[in-house]
Amino acid sequence: MPETVRLTDGVVTLTPLSMDDVGAHLAGEDEQLVRWLNGGPGTRATVEKHVRRCMEQWATGGPVHAFGVRAGVRETLTGTMEVHFHQPYLAPGQVNLAYGLYPAWRGRGIATRAVALACRHARSAGAAEAVITVDPENIASANVARRSGFAYLKHAEAGDDDLLDWYVRPLTAARGEISDRPGRL
Q: Residues in domain N-acetyltransferase (predicted)?
């Protein structure tokens, strides 16, 4: 049940997106989210449709696990994190991570912490390697990948016609566990 999924490191928390997140997401969307992640400006109708699809994926055990990234004492919605399992452009055992933070929350290490939590989630679901695909011009996202222990792999397609930089991180270590510390396996 998605309502029982709650991942936290004590600073950042990931919980499945819900309809309660629609307004906060619309308020947080900016030009960078539209350019790098959303593909177009959101409207209440499009964001509600997206969140319904995300909720359906959780309810049916679908391949996309969409989280709200939350921080602060009130666990304010600061952005989103998606873990994509079983995508045609991925090798068996790989997952793709896609994330975006709202402007007021960038530059605080939240995305790096969210990536670490998403890696922990993917590992617990049986994934062996995480992939982050980044437009070569999106320096901030590439920096998050590197800070999170991902290494550059290649410049290639990732599910569409766009050529993206691929960063990868194994989710297993010598003892079969991933570290809670980004960059250390």
A: 12-172
